[in-house]
């Protein structure tokens, strides 16, 4: 199921579509434990969160799925959290930029408000590659005047119990903290003053 929102939604609820990879797909844990589901609970009935994230997804895969997702779900907002798998495969950052650029343009053509999350990569990929890769996100945010969210694992990598043994995927314990990491920016983008609904546990 893609829907991560409450079972009873207000008819005028704004629909937020999340398209991402395993970091948003509740990898190796119950879907209800993932940060996207926690976001839906926090937002309450004013928003419907549709989590269309797939483990292993790349920017090319996201682009290939986007039109159908837009048609099927008719979202008001799109949150793009892609690029990690591109980077781990050392794909050319220029191709990443082209794919994300096309996604943003397509969503805007549908009248959808877009936000993009900054993605960070392990340092072992080398400083030159990291500079090119990580620069893609602010470049696109400036070009298209879209909100750039901070990476939700930014302060968690070195904290005990936050990462799985692979050093890439966050644990179930990390999920609430991932939401807290991006909540201030999400509040501004979604125009919510304070948490509503059940909140986080």
UniProtKB/TrEMBL annotation:
<protein>
    <submittedName>
        <fullName>Arylesterase</fullName>
    </submittedName>
</protein>
<dbReference type="InterPro" id="IPR013830">
    <property type="entry name" value="SGNH_hydro"/>
</dbReference>
<dbReference type="GO" id="GO:0004622">
    <property type="term" value="F:phosphatidylcholine lysophospholipase activity"/>
</dbReference>
<dbReference type="InterPro" id="IPR051532">
    <property type="entry name" value="Ester_Hydrolysis_Enzymes"/>
</dbReference>
<dbReference type="InterPro" id="IPR036514">
    <property type="entry name" value="SGNH_hydro_sf"/>
</dbReference>
<dbReference type="Pfam" id="PF13472">
    <property type="entry name" value="Lipase_GDSL_2"/>
</dbReference>
<feature type="domain" description="SGNH hydrolase-type esterase">
    <location>
        <begin position="19"/>
        <end position="173"/>
    </location>
</feature>
